[in-house]
Amino acid sequence: MGLDVFIDLTAGDPRHRAVEEAIAKWLLPEHLGAAADRVTIVTGRGKGVSGSQSPSNWRVVASDTPIAEFNGAMEIAGIENRALLAVFGTPDIGVEALGALQESFEQDPMFGFAVPRVSCMDRCCIARLTRSGVGPTEWLPRSVLGEIPEHELLLETVMPCVLMAPRVAGNFGPLDSGFESLPAALLDCMAAARRCGFRTVSCNRAVVAIGVPCGASTLEPVPGLAGLAGLAGLAGNDATRIQRAVPDLARSWEQSSAGAAINFEELYTAVPRGDGREGRSLLIDIRNVAPVHNGTTHSILGLVGALRETTGDWSVSLLATEQGAAFHALAGRFGDWPVYTALPRRSFTVAFRPSQPWHLRELVDLHRVSLLTVCLLLDTIAWDVAYCAPPGLEAVWQFLASHADGLLYDSEFTRRRFATRFPAGATVPGAVVHFSFDPSDYLNGTSASGAPRDGHILVVGNHLDHKDVRQTARTLATGFPYRRIEVLGPADGGSPLVSAHPSGTLADSAIGQLYANATCVVYPSFYEGFGFPILTALAHGRTVFVRRSELVTELAPHCHGQGTLVPFDRREELIDLIGRLTDGERLESLPIADPRQVRPRGWRDVARDTHQFLSSVIDERIPGRWRERDRAIAQMTSYRT
């Protein structure tokens, strides 16, 4: 396949010497010299460039009508069955890049145009794709080329050079001379060819350099450098004419994989350059923090607060609900971190949700604004018990297991439950990050020990069946009819000595007083992911009766405090155990950590481990993961009822 070249130097005001130098460079065998059969250079009138040093098949034309000149070159290329390379400005086009563009036509007969990627003059960075190649762009680390396919099907796109296939040159000319610029007229030609099935392909391994340093924050037209002149924006008349001529262009971009390529590279701008951590950005999704005080809000806010000390060199933002943000006074609570109550319009390196997602929309939201998605799994209870799970939860967690970039778990017990129920999650990078075991984090302003003033039995849980609060409180009220029983959760009426406090209705300080003044604490839950009431009771120096489980066995060696951890299997055992405790008998208990030998794990340690995991997910990210997730989302959302 032969090759003709058309070089448009009319945009901007290139200096005479710069053009002569560009021609001399293009003539070299490693550039266009050995590949081009015919070259036409249009400089614009009054430029004074003769091209006297050029060979006979190189023609320099002083004209202000590049579209008319291009139509002539296009007609000849079509008749003689040669590809036509349109060049704008003075990019550095190597023979390797040119060969890659030509080879793309051999892969598919319906590839009508091939465009390269654009690098800075030092070739260390790549210009981000934009729709149709129009508008300002940004530099990406060259590493982006390792995370995208060799070829990308686009919609109409102009670059500093565009290769037109011979079949297109012979069938889709002449270009509309009503456009003011050649790039705009070429976009119109690309659209006409696409409507007949000829696509534009980006050759992501073919790279041409332009004379712009990578330090420039955006690529705008640069006076004196025609590298992207005419491509960073279309004149008003051209923009209007394109919209009128190609009304489907915007819709086509949105509904094709080309739009996903644009979105991916926009998010990739959040990837820091080099090995330093500066430039990393983090969105913490705490929309699961409801306007209540409970174990979930305690864990999330505790972790987020500690992360302030470990992410000082990151740009961190929070995403919350309006109600949650107001109830917990999030504005200013975490320093200068912005608190969004709607999805922010910016890109983040990683989005971290410190609780499991409940709806697919939550994961899609994070995917839209971040390159990487990491979630912390607290438990799998809702899916197992079924009755309280939101519709579609199984599908949401299957999607999470298949497409997350990283998964954290609050316990090994939770990790095993999730991996058993959603096996795909076992292949996702993951780690167990226990929450704080430091008693000082659970005192809520009350004393750590001392004789309780009230001597009540405290039963802790909520209204959910697996907490077993109502039945346990009923058993205790029957066994101890003259003992006061305080219940964090529901309780049957009928006894003035039983007081129920629905979960989430008491402030932390009031809850702390219930623990501090209890003779003992009963935590009867069948199924937990961690178990903050255990740590709170031990911190207050209380004996806590907890149902025997693998989770309790896992947590006990890490627990601290002056209390005692006593397991039980059946509710009825509690009558005997609490009676013996009241009589001063020493009960068989699970061993907990010795503070003289082991420093308690605090929220700072949790934040450190979380931060390290997020960093590892960034550093060792799986190429193509975002694109796979995007395809899955597109497939799901394409369904319409």
What's a concise summary of this model?
This protein has 641 residues and is α/β, with parallel strands linked by helices. It is built from 21 helices and 23 strands. It folds into 3 domains: 267 residues, Spore Coat Polysaccharide Biosynthesis Protein SpsA, Chain A (Alpha-Beta Complex), CATH 3.90.550; 184 residues, Rossmann fold (3-Layer(aba) Sandwich), CATH 3.40.50.2000; 136 residues, 3-Layer(aba) Sandwich (Rossmann fold).
- Which regions have little confidence, pLDDT < 50, spanning 5+ residues? 220-232
Question: What structural category arises from helix and sheet content?
Answer: alpha/beta
The rounded distance between the terminal residues' Cα atoms is 49 Å
Gyration radius, to the nearest Å? 33 Å
Which strand-content bin applies to the residues? Answer: 15-25%
Q: How many domain regions?
A: 3
What is the strand arrangement across the widest sheet? Answer: 3-2-1-4-9-5-10-8
What overall geometry do the principal axes of the alpha carbons give?
elongated
Assigned CATH architecture of the largest domain: Alpha-Beta Complex
Tell me the number of strands. Answer: 23
Individual helix count: 21
Question: What proportion of the residues is helical, as a percent range?
Answer: 25-40%
- Residue-averaged pLDDT, rounded? 89
The biggest sheet amounts to: 8 strands, mixed
